[in-house]
Write a structure and sequence with these properties.
Layout (H helix, E strand, L loop, with lengths): L1 H22 L10 H4 L4 E6 L2 E7 L7 E5 L10 H7 L4 E5 L23 H14 L5 E6 L1 H12 L4 E7 L14 H4 L2 H15 L4 H4 L11 H8 L7 H10 L7 H4 L6 E6 L7 H10 L4 E5 L6 H4 L1 H13 L2
Parallel strand pairs: 3-4, 3-5, 5-6, 6-7, 7-8
Antiparallel strand pairs: 1-2, 2-4
Amino acid sequence: MLSRRWPLALVALLLVLLGGPLVVPPPEAGSDAGGELAGPQGRFARVLGVDVHHEAAGSAGAPAVLLHHHFYGNTRTWRHVLDGLAHDWRPIAVDRPGFGLTERPPRTAWTRGNPYTRASAARIGLGVLDEHDAAQAVVVGASAGGTVALETYALAPERVRALVLVSPAITGDVGPPPRLRPLLRSPQARRLGPYVVRRRAGEVTLERITRSWHDPSRATQADLDAYRRPLRVSGWDRGFWEVLTAEAPPSLADLLGRIEVPTLVVAGEHDEVISPRWNARTARAIPGARLEVIPDCGHTPHEECPDALLEVVRDFLDDL
């Protein structure tokens, strides 16, 4: 009798696993709206149907510098750069959808395509520039934000005055293997995926946020707070999952040789995520690009070595 029943039990189990999340939707993480968490420099702009959080410093008439954060980063991870450039420039840091305090729209609310792609992040950055009446900007991107900066140049080169690429992830990516991503976009996976995200990304510690630093002892409570604040935003786990599964890894190597604006590539001497030799290769592929290697620094100089980064960036901006 048992041999006849086990196939039925297996089918029932599969139905529960595949259909259960559709019948009983899991609760979302977070409970606050982004506007409740924004600081004094925080602003929101409606771009591509998304309430986009960004922070701006400096005077409104100064030339703009648009800052795209690394994967898992947000506007607060740019805070040293915002303050350091505010005297002569108009630095504007944007929270890409899926991160920071920017709205995490569910699929039913997508009005202009998938807002979690790199191309959408680039368009959103341009939309934020429009909110500040900035026709052009120096576009800065760190790691995965470097791919967004390059997407911005590919989309609207006339609006990019110059590029600053901080260990850009030209061909790399964070997330599951590309062949698995279509499966992970299924309704069932979209229901269960946020649970996985909570287990992997929901516990923020100094050890976790400094894994790519050369000297983790430099981290402070402010560094930790920068990553903890977004975890209070409603649906942060769902938005993170959408970014992970939105698209294939970037393929921007062919673009490098066609860049016609001044470009600075920055690498940390001890970057173990994207090594300096890969950043040197990126710099060589861009006509006239300049490479700067920051000593005793890891993958995110804007967090770990902001003074050294600001020195090379200011020097580059002064030559424009």
